[in-house]
Structure formats: C-alpha cells, structure tokens
Amino acid sequence: MAIASQLQMLSTKWNQEFKAYQIDTEFIKGRHVSLLQPCSRERAIELPTLVRGIMLPLQNKLIEAGLDGLVWQAGKGTPTALNNFLLASDTSNQPVLFG
To answer: Do residues 72 and 78 make contact, with C-beta atoms less than 8 angstroms apart?
Structure first.
C-alpha cells in the first residue's frame, strides 16, 4: 500500500512581523481511494463510499449555502476532485478533504 503525505490546514492568521497572512499546516499520512480495478476487490467499496457518502452530500450543502463556485472541489463536473480527498491512516481511514 502506498502511503502519501498531504498537508492539513490547521489555521490562518495575520503575521504582524511579515505583514502577511500565515497558514499553519501539518502532514497527514494516508492514501487516496483505490480506483475500481480487478486487483483491488477488497477496496472496491472505497470509491462508492466517498462519492455517495461524502462528495454528493458536500456538493448539495455547498449549493444550498450559495457556495456553488466551490462544488468542483467536491467532484461536480470534474473527476480530478478525487485527489482532494485522502484516507488518513491516523483517523481509521476516514476521508479528509483538502481544498
């Protein structure tokens, strides 16, 4: 299993010394969901779970909130949105969204 590291944004704040906004982050160990293929049958549920359980409800919530310009990050109209999610090893393989 390939383990990837992604950054998780923890907070943003104004840095007075540099007179700029600062983003605090940390690395998360995990991997992307497995794509459907014959050699990964034990992980075949990952993709449908992500799409039906997280991406579609998130798209609906973003649209309801008037943030329809952000739905592409949750997969509406773009298959590359799968890369915005990671199954984090340190959270019992729970999907984590990266924007």
So the answer is: yes
